[in-house]
Amino acid sequence: MHPIYEGKAKRLWETSDPMTLRMEFKNDATAFNGEKKASFENKGRLNNEISTLIYEYLGKTGIPTHFVRKIDDTNVEVKRVEIVMVEVIVRNVAAGSFCKRTGMEEGKAFSQPIIEFSYKSDELGDPLINDDYIREMGLATPEDLVFLRKSALQVNEILSGFFAEVGLKLVDFKLEFGRLASDPSQIVLADEISPDGCRLWDLKTGEKMDKDRFRRDLGNVMEAYEEVLGRLKARLAKETA
Ligand code: UDP
To answer: What spacing in Å lies between the alpha carbon of 15 and ligand 1's midpoint?
Structure first.
């Protein structure tokens, strides 16, 4: 069997149901558009657990997603979608490419969240694009973009609160969306939501608890992911207690 898609950190497999796929989380990590590579034991499991927990939480708040259920340590069942080739990035605090682009210092909190779009293309290095590019490239309609923006801001509200409750600042994150294979008029949140695609800073110490530990060789990468998972689990255990 071959996966129908293999990305840098995940594989997608067909199932007996043509409308359902299995998404497998790998231990591989990449940064700087694939230039830096490594593999971390348990990364697939940790990201799967964190992403599952976040998707279940978002599902309860009514955000439509591709998530169906967790299958095992490194696999989830998801609805088949056609990915919208636009990455939606939400920023609450200046970091990463925002700082590179503007010269602004890392850590400045924005008065309002910033939304930006990039074209999902490894070949081109995910370039920054705007609404007009997206329309003319045929990646999404202006109406789709209204929906993507609104959903991204909603997810930001929900997740900023969720992470704040466990002592983490949601600095920025990347979302992907897809059109349901069973009904392409419906766009849902897709891909993973994990410390691979979010910046999370400890609210007390400012310590980075995300993939920047790998990008910047800060060490203890998986320890940080484990800590994020532990805090989220403890928070949810309180809810069910
Ligand atoms: N991000 C991602 N995949 C990408 C680009 C960005 O998951 O291809 C995430 C990244 O982890 C961060 C946020 O989106 O949480 C903003 O990333 P930025 O544009 O600062 O890019 P970076 O310089 O970190 O690649």
So the answer is: 31
What is this structure's pTM?
0.97
CA of 86 relative to ligand 1 center, distance in Å = 13
Atom 10 of ligand 1, nearest CA residue: 197
Tens digits of residue pLDDT in 53-66: 999 999 999 999 99
What is the Å distance from ligand 1's center to 122 Cα? 13
Q: Which residue has the tokens 């997608």?
A: 12
Encode pLDDT of 59-115 as tens digits. Answer: 999 999 999 999 999 999 999 999 999 999 999 999 999 999 999 999 999 999 999
Chosen CATH of 82-221 out of 3.30.70.360, 3.30.470.20, 3.40.50.10140, 3.40.50.10330:
3.30.470.20
Query: 3-81 falls under which CATH superfamily?
Result: Phosphorylase Kinase; domain 1 (3.30.200.20)
Please work out whether the CB of residue 197 comes within 6 Å of at least one atom of ligand 1: yes
Q: Catalogue the long-range contacts made by 154-163 (C-beta closer than 8 Å, 24 or more residues apart).
A: 154/63, 155/58, 155/63, 155/90, 155/189, 156/90, 156/92, 156/113, 158/57, 158/58, 158/61, 158/63, 159/54, 159/58, 159/193, 160/92, 162/54, 162/57, 162/232, 162/235, 163/200
- Mutation pick for ligand 1 pocket among 115, 172, 211 (CB with most ligand atoms within 8 Å): 172
